[in-house]
Write the structure tokens for this entry.
Amino acid sequence: MDIQVVRADITTVAADAIVNAANPSLLGGGGVDGAIHRAGGPAVLEACRELRATSLPDGLPRGQAVATTAGRLPARWVIHTAGPVFSRTQDRAQVLADCYRNCLAVADELGAASVAFPTISAGVYGWPTADATRIAVDTLAETPTRVGTAILVAFGDEAYEGYLRALAERRG
Ligand code: ADP
């Protein structure tokens, strides 16, 4: 898989699937979640409500992933994943890596060739950005998938530098 790094608002990134750093309720929130729902429009929230009413009555467990329509976003699907809270989730590194692995598994089921990721858990959930970007790069590089391109979307300088450093270290 080709791993690319861009600095952008993820709602402007064209990819088959865009990952949302959601919360377990799936019913919207701040940060990238709010931005995705604003840009995607009501179809995204409607699809999330439908999931809650059917397959996910208790919400989305942290580390898991599920797809919906992308509404008006320049993507075919949004893959929602609920990241661990840095200060509160047990086995947090495992759960954060699970988010990336399960997003790729959902993307494989969908047949998505390209997937854009925000820095999961590095906002309100409090994960130190340099460490969150390293886990993202290492997990994506080590997970077998048919996804051809992962786009790591940095929303700030720290994430951008973290991704580049983690990639450089892997490439030696
Ligand atoms: P979490 O609750 O998983 O920490 P946040 O949305 O608070 O989720 O933050 C996750 C990451 O997404 C942070 O690095 C934040 O800077 C970034 N982010 C926030 N808005 C956007 C956006 N529009 N596009 C891309 N990344 C974003």
